[in-house]
Amino acid sequence: MRSILLAALGALTLSTAPAAAQVAAQTALVPHVGGRVAPAPDGGLAFGWPGVYFEGRFSGPSVTVAVDTGSEHLAVSIDGQVRAELRKPGLARLTFDHLAPGEHVVRLDKLTESQTGAARFIGFFVGPEGKPLAPTARPRRIEFIGDSYTVAYGVRSTHRDCTQDEVHDLTDTSQSFAPILAGRLDADYRIIAFSGRGVVRNYSGLAPGEPLPALYPRLIPGQAEPHVDPTESWKPDLIVVGLGTNDFSTPLKAGEAWPDEADLRADYRDAYVAFVAALARRDPQARFLLLAGDTFADDVAQVAGRLNGATANLATPVRVTGMERTACHSHPSAADERMMADLLEKAIRGLK
Fold it and tell me: Spelled out in words, what is the top-level CATH class assigned to the domain 2-133?
């Protein structure tokens, strides 16, 4: 992965700077990447899954952030303080100077969910007075697999009725339970989540045959290729799965694959067990937490029981109930996201 990052970033240095003299005076930082990325055709790193982030360490008075935002909203922070939100499409090159002496961390976070297309990370750069420092990985790794609850769909909204533009603009994955929990545990994380998708059935029966497990191998969610390299170095200690709301939140329609709800629930349980078992074979070091809403808690409990019958203590169900759901289209509020982080943190601390 490190060689891929260096090749992808090094290939575009000359093409992204406004002037050759400026390029010569700047040095690229080797970023620490959280989430899935792919080498972009025109250089840099393409990214599309929610919650992808890039971090760079350096010493010196200034740093430049270069990115092609696509249709995403991105946040730039330095030393944990948000310094800018990029909301306009296209190339952006921002320089932050007059920084205090000493070491600094610059970070770029993807806030929005766009299910097609991708943004492009170009790089972090320091001038001649700066010094690149090696990125620091955190001691733990958590993977989050889910749907709109994991994405923090429309979480910035103060009302439930939202247009599609408002959903896009008011989604903020940095407020999801996933980065909240990872921050508490000092963990790196990646989020593989897609609004409206389930284990076997998507919201209202849309996109049949393409539930989240079918999209899971993709590096960019809206692109069938490329797929994840099975030998990649990412090895999570914990995998949190939150899938099931979309399988059961709308009634079955004529022509769908299941004759009745009982058949749908049986298929859900079987497919969920198979999905987690495949992940466990790939990552035998990982433990699993399975989020369960009110409408499918019994199913998740059965899934966990079957998994634990094959591998002791592999999966722990985590019941989520009592949410206010005041964000867009009755999705979890920021308070609900923090509550889910609380429940998961408690469950993690109780693992044997």
Answer: mainly beta
